[in-house]
Amino acid sequence: MTLHIYNTMTRELEKFVPLVQGKVSMYVCGPTVYDYIHIGNARPAIFFDVVRRYLEASDYEVNYVVNFTDVDDKLIRKAEQLGSTVPEVAERFIAAFNENIAGLGIHKASINPRVTEHIPEILAFIEQLVNTGYAYESGGDVYYRTNKFTDYGKLSHQNMDELQLGIRIEVDERKENGQDFVLWKAAKPGEIAWDSPWGAGRPGWHIECSAMARKYLGDTLDIHGGGQDLQFPHHECEVAQSEAVTGKPLARYWMHNGYININNEKMSKSLGNGITVNELLKQTKREALRYFMLSSHYRSPLNFNDETIAQAENSVERVANCYGNLNHRLSVAGNVAEEDFGAIEERVTSIIEQFRAKMDDDFNTPDAITALFDLVSEANQYLQRPVVTVDALQLFLGAFEAMDNVLGLLPQEEEGLLDADIDALIVERTEARQAKNWARADEIRDLLAEQGIVLEDTPQGIRWKRK
Predict the structure, then answer these.
(1) According to the model, what pLDDT value does residue 167 have?
(2) Contact criterion met (CB below 8 Å) for 46 and 104
(3) CB neighbours (10 Å) of residue 293?
(4) Which residues neighbour 316 within 8 Å (Cβ) at sequence distance 6 or greater?
(5) Where are the domains of the chain?
(6) How far from chain centre, in Å, is Cα 447?
(7) Percent helix, strand and coil across the chain, each rounded to 5?
(8) Nearest 10 degrees: CA dihedral of 226, 111, 70, 233?
(9) Where is motif 'KMSKS' region found (predicted)?
(10) The model's pTM
(11) How far apart are CA 295 and CA 46, in angstroms?
(12) Half-sphere exposure (CA, 13 Å, Cβ side) for 212?
């Protein structure tokens, strides 16, 4: 089966064909780094991480760009609140973002460009828009002339009349039209600013992504992604800016994930129900958070509550236990012939094909997870046999790892004791018990317990797992 993606631009499921065979250019809008990221930011971060992983598992070379908005009104206000500077605030929360991303098991982007490091490219982009009549200067600000771009609204599937009626537009006499949006903002006294042909100021929000996407991925990129809330106005404005300059489609495929609700209520500052990733990672395993995010189709809304997280924790525990049992049996298994190995191989291969078919169907992670649990069931049935073989165990383990390379649901090695250290301590504890050196045996038991290592007696000997 061939990968198909639901394209927000066309509202259709389309066969995925990248511009360059074997390569994928992918831009996902990143955070404005004035605070810790929240659960709403985590959904696109995790989902597009899985998209990127699956493309790489499908032998594509992926150039994955996630930007940092490191200057805007929110950063300026935050710096004032903290008695700090905009660059210092940005550095603090970029570091926090990177820590949170690692905590969620997300692979680092190919590059994280920052707005403040691309002012020349942004100014050049704006100048092109001014020179071609798509933008105009007014009172030190520069605005995009939306009436000139006849396709404005095509991504969000709204026409100009609907846009005028559908959103509140603040009266601004500096604009020719209420829908025009700012490309360059004149600086107020004391604000961070850069020189420009229109006076000191800083970039508007939308222009930064157009300039940086073009620099790192070219005039047209393969996939542009982000949350549903970015579809309008942010991505709509990107389309207008970029296509006015290049005359080419900004992206071949537009992907947008759905909203997250908290206890069936929309997450918002006014309700005070936002949850930061920092808080979540203190309470919940990263695997459970990833499972929760992937358990519904990415375009569907997702409801966060204690019950859904508890279900996610139970599910990933089941996967981890099966994987741990396979590895444990592998350490004591003999490599003898297995009469029905061909039948086992056929079932495992069928499950892998099912997994790929679901991922090829617009990254249907809920059904891909179902395939993973089919593998868990098959493996658990196999593990009930008194005699197992290396070939069959390695077959199961290989399938687990192939799926997990995409989903990222298995536990990652934590800081502290390495697996080899734990194995060595268990051997030492067993020898201490045999020598009736109870003090040393108890010391090792306590050390392992402090590290969150749980020991279990099995017919094949002691096995361990992390809490």
Answers:
(1) 46
(2) yes
(3) 25
(4) 285, 287, 288, 291, 409
(5) 4-283, 302-407, 419-466
(6) 35
(7) 50, 20, 30
(8) -20
(9) 266-270
(10) 0.87
(11) 12
(12) 27
Q: Is the peptide bond before 459 cis (omega within 30 degrees of 0)?
A: no
74 is in an annotated binding site: no
Give, as one character, the DSSP assignment of residue 5: E
The dihedral through the CA atoms of 253, 261, 42, 72 has a sign that is positive
Q: Which carries the bigger pLDDT value, residue 225 or residue 423?
A: 225
pLDDT in tens, 264-313: 777 766 556 678 999 999 999 999 999 999 999 999 999 999 999 999 99
The whole-number average pLDDT for the span 99-105 is 96
Residue 222 near residue 12, CB atoms below 8 Å? no
Count Cβ atoms below 10 Å from residue 432 Cβ, excluding itself.
Answer: 18
Name the residue with tokens 């290049």.
246
Model confidence over 119-166: pLDDT tens digits? 999 999 999 999 999 999 999 999 999 999 999 999 999 876 666 544
Pairing of strands 61-66, 23-28: parallel
DSSP string, 23-79: EEEEEE---BSSS--BHHHHHHHHHHHHHHHHHHHTT-EEEEEE-BB--SHHHHHHH
Q: Is 307 annotated as a binding residue?
A: no
In the block, tokens 């949850």 appear at 275
Looking up tokens 């991303």, which residue turns up?
101
> Over pLDDT 70: what percentage of the chain?
89
d(CA 467, CA 455): 10
Question: Left, alpha or beta for 115 (phi > 0: left; psi -120 to 50: alpha)?
Answer: alpha
Q: Which residue has the higher pLDDT, 417 or 286?
A: 286
Per the CB < 8 A criterion, the answer to whether 22 and 60 are in contact is: yes
C-alpha dihedral (271, 277, 283, 285), degrees to nearest 10 = 140
CATH number of 302-407: 1.20.120.640
Q: Is 29 annotated as a binding residue?
A: yes
Sign of the C-alpha dihedral computed for residues 191, 195, 199 and 205 taken in this order:
negative
Query: What residue type is 373 in one-letter code?
Result: F
Copy the structure tokens of residue 44: 């696109």
For tokens 């390695």, the residue is 394
Q: Please write the tens of the pLDDT for every residue from 173-212.
A: 789 988 999 999 999 999 999 999 999 999 999 999 999 9
Give the type of residue at 231: Q
Annotation: CATH topology of 4-283: Rossmann fold (3.40.50)
Using an 8 Å Cβ cutoff, are 267 and 303 in contact? no
Query: Exposure pattern of 301-326 as b/e (b: 16+ CB <10 Å)?
Result: ebebeeebbeebbebbbebbebbbbb
- Bridging pattern class, strands 302-304 and 260-262: parallel
pLDDT of residue 464: 67
Same fold, 4-283 and 302-407: no
* Distance in Å from the first CA to the final CA of the chain: 39
